[in-house]
Write a structure and sequence with these properties.
2 copies of one chain form a homodimer. Chain A is mainly alpha-helical. The first copy, chain A, is built from 11 helices and 2 strands. The first copy, chain A, has a two-stranded antiparallel ribbon. Chain B binds a DNA duplex through α2.
Chain lengths: ~230, ~230
DNA sequence: CTTGCACCTCACGTAACGTGAGGTCCTAAC
DNA sequence: GTTAGGACCTCACGTTACGTGAGGTGCAAG
């Protein structure tokens, strides 16, 4: 059988057959003119190749399975299954994240979306899975309104603190103490008072200088509040 | 910031930064000597790139999202989600198939495994999903023993029929009629008498000549039995 | 002035082919 | 005998997101 006939019969491309010949996976005999000739044996082998390919094995694995009896089929399948399951898990995680974002910001612009994705990636980096779940529960408890109102409140607080720093107010001053209490209350409200989560939060602000700056928080403010809270 | 510093800070390779520069995804300024210099703006952009990459977008999509405001983020995310879900589905199917095979042939050799995969691929090609489920239920009803005994029975039946064909026996001969009834009973036992499944089965034998031959069935035998059954 | 490190630019390799480009073989019709 | 049209052949580059050298330059310290 010539290459075109085989291609038509099996529905795969001539180029693919050429490729399998090139890599030595399926090497037909040749006519005097150099045309490929596929016999019964090659057709059988091609069917096996296609079945294994359909099952997601690489051409290299397929070659090994078909040519070397010492290839441990069970191990290859086990490895393959593990790979598949890992990929499934990863993709499910991704889906969950993207769906959450799409659901959470139904009217966001491109920038907002990208920032949301960025923040989410960052959170994944600094919090454990359990902490993320706790935070999510906490967010639901607080409700949408509260979540929406918080950033402004936080920003106002930052500005007040910054004002006292510029004015040189002593951290022990009652006005600063009040602000520090507010700071602590805000943090507790969102972390649920979990010290491990607060630790992760601190790490995040420490590691992501740029993010911290955007939020109006820097080392100076952190120190000042820490002294006030002592 | 020079390229090595940035690489260390973000944990990605210098080559990757070179690559992003090559494809115009992240183009730093250059010093007089031609060394790359990454400023605040580039660092911000890199973070965005990494977040989006982590989310599974291609570099081309990322470039589009970051550079062109007319890029429909929602559409991109939707498309991406669809891709991911399709991949998840495909991989879950594969896992199910491979696990079924591994469980069904706990002591198989390489050839048996490959053949099992081949047969399964073939079945997927000729039967609908519902039919495959029906067949699976049927197999469980019949039990392992019966499934194991059937091939021999089938093979014996084939040999008997072949004998009559060679002897030139009339299909209407009572002995042939008896064999035909047996044939029908065997088919009904495994198809559950579903005519659509039987049709698929016939198509499979017609399309997969090689498989049919291995089973000892060819067009001649098919015709002979058909005449006997009339 | 030299050593050594960080940087630079090619440029090939990866998996599994798709897609031409340009040349040869075969078969049938004239 | 020749000629047209398929079918076949062999390069060889393109795809994705970089890894991995090879070979050359810039810069600060001893």
């Amino acid at each position: 059988m010539k290459i075109g006939d085989l291609a038509k019969r099996t529905g795969i491309s001539i180029r693919t057959l050429h490729h399998y010949d090139e890599i030595g996976l399926l090497t037909p005999t040749r006519t005097a003119a150099g045309h490929r000739e596929y016999g019964r044996e090659e057709i059988v082998r091609l069917q096996q190749i296609l079945s294994l390919r359909q099952s997601g094995f690489s051409l290299e694995e397929i070659g090994g399975l078909l040519d070397r009896r010492d290839f441990d089929v069970r191990a290859v399948i086990g490895l393959h299954l593990a790979r598949l399951q890992e990929q499934i898990r990863a993709r499910q995680d991704l889906c969950a994240r993207l769906e959450a974002i799409a659901a959470h910001y139904p009217t966001a612009t491109a920038e907002e979306f990208i920032q949301a994705i960025e923040v989410m990636t960052m959170f994944d980096k600094y919090y454990t899975k359990e902490q993320l779940e706790t935070l999510e529960k906490r967010r639901q408890m607080l409700g949408e309104e509260r979540m929406a109102a918080a950033p402004a409140e936080w920003s106002a607080l930052m500005q007040d603190v910054r004002g006292h720093i510029r004015a040189g107010t002593d951290p022990k001053d009652p006005r600063v103490q009040e602000l520090a209490r507010k700071w602590r209350a805000l943090i507790d409200e969102f972390t649920g008072g979990d010290p491990a989560i607060e630790e992760s939060l601190r790490n995040m602000y420490k590691g992501e200088t740029r993010f911290a700056e955007e939020q109006g928080v820097d080392a100076e403010i952190g120190d000042y509040i820490r002294r006030a809270l002592e």
